[in-house]
Amino acid sequence: MLSKIEIRQQFGQQSNWKGGLVVTRDLIFLGMALGIAYYWGQHWWLTILLIWFIGMIQFAMGESLLHEASHGNLFKTKKMNVWVGNLIAYAILTTLDEWRTEHQTHHGYLLSEQDHLTQDYIDYRLYKGIHPFITWILQPLLGWVGFHWLRSELGGLFKHKGVLLFYAILLVFCGLTNSFSFLFWYWIIPLIWAYSSILYWSEITDHYLAKAATRSNTSFFWNFMFHNGGYHWVHHEYPYIPWYLLKEADELLSPTDSPMDRTKGWWEMYQIMLEDYNSKHLV
């Protein structure tokens, strides 16, 4: 077993060029999606697919990369973490400092009254004995989660000057290019519907019903799209490890004696919730 010093020496390595590369990847994905929407967005089925794909990119940047920046892991240079982190944060109606403060409380007081996740789980109605088909599937897909997210986050638009300036510039650009409807369908709707739903599923997967308080999601697709954000146990234990080393660190450092604290993805998490529900409600 490696010592704490050896773990930090082996895995605590931030990189400016890797940070730039991963931000560029997401911007390319976003640009491709917007290009497809511009030329072929008249097909309703393609619009729905693009809304969810763009929501994934919003989550990849607005949750995964912002998370890395808040820990000082996205770039080696502190100023780059602050500058890029704030720019990403403005897009999802917050600031780097506000996001970091909430996240540090989450790390320090996990699932306590101080942790925002405790209230989130109550708001998500996870403790009301509701069938998981409703809480896991219907609530996000039918927009209930999006409404809850918008109600809690909309104040950020008027509370933070950076957020207000970001969206003011965006609105001016859309006014000059006559593209308000494009902004609505391919940024606002993905943010309210898809991004909020993915955030909801992520928050539940990370900690809900986890025996050791934190669960890892080892899904290849999830970790490819969201920059190894599924390796959550190892992140909580060693928050200085950057995203590109989390998989290797997970394989070396994570315990393997609690299968319930590791899941292979969205469907398996639903099965965990369903098993818990059945154990309490079926005789």
From TrEMBL:
It holds the Pfam family FA_desaturase. The keyword Membrane applies. GO terms for biological process: lipid metabolic process. The chain crosses the membrane at residues 21-40, 46-66, 133-150, 162-178. InterPro entries: FA_desaturase_dom. Keywords: Membrane, Transmembrane, Transmembrane helix. Residues 44-256 form the Fatty acid desaturase domain. The keyword rRNA processing does not apply. This is Fatty acid desaturase. It comes from Aureispira anguillae.
